[in-house]
Fold this sequence. Notes:
The structure holds two protein chains of two kinds.
Chain A: E1 4-7, E2 10-13, E3 19-25, E4 31-38, E5 42-49, E6 56-57, E7 65-67, E8 73-78, E9 87-94, E10 102-104, E11 108-112
Parallel strand pairs in A: 2-11
Antiparallel strand pairs in A: 1-3, 3-8, 4-5, 4-9, 5-6, 7-8, 9-10, 9-11
Chain B: E1 4-7, E2 10-14, E3 19-25, E4 32-38, E5 44-51, E6 56-58, E7 62-67, E8 72-77, E9 86-93, E10 102-104, E11 108-113
Parallel strand pairs in B: 2-11
Antiparallel strand pairs in B: 1-3, 3-8, 4-5, 4-9, 6-7, 7-8, 9-10, 9-11
Amino acid sequence: EAAVTQSPRNKVAVTGGKVTLSCNQTNNHNNMYWYRQDTGHGLRLIHYSYGAGSTEKGDIPDGYKASRPSQENFSLILELATPSQTSVYFCASGGSFSNERLFFGHGTKLSVL
Amino acid sequence: GEQVEQRPPHLSVREGDSAVIICTYTDPNSYYFFWYKQEPGAGLQLLMKVFSSTEINEGQGFTVLLNKKDKQLSLNLTAAHPGDSAVYFCAVSDPGTGSNRLTFGKGTKFSLIP
């Protein structure tokens, strides 16, 4: 079974602080994704990547940056965290074709106070 | 872009009963569809993937129907049991990108009535 590992599992941050969420996959997948999950909104795509060095804006990129330094690692960066970014964040990886499933991590619960 | 509407947002049934979750999508060119299950405190796990060439898929305890004419996807949970309690999401693969970028429905929280 493909493995996607997120860290940390829980994070409490202060408003205006910098937060980095990390994701590692051992599946050798080209594509990686960051979603946030909020009640009433389901999962919304923040950023995604087609491979090392690539990052693309998703549907709700404002306030977030992403970094893909290697095939295995994909980070989500909140330079100036705000309370509206309190959410559960999921990382996923998948192959390059539209018929392929995504593999999800367990999620990171972020609270911005 | 693609939009996916999922209903109902909440669904409670008694053990042994059946239940239906419906998703409606907007892009007629969409070709690949997925159902994911999320148990409490966990990530999403694939339940079933459906291709446009397949109208019916049956798994263990559920049936998935795809109606391309009405742009509708449904998940029918048959004979519900405690292990079915979870949040279910439908997802549609973006037909324009050639990648597996997904647009998700808002989810259905499914539970059993004690």
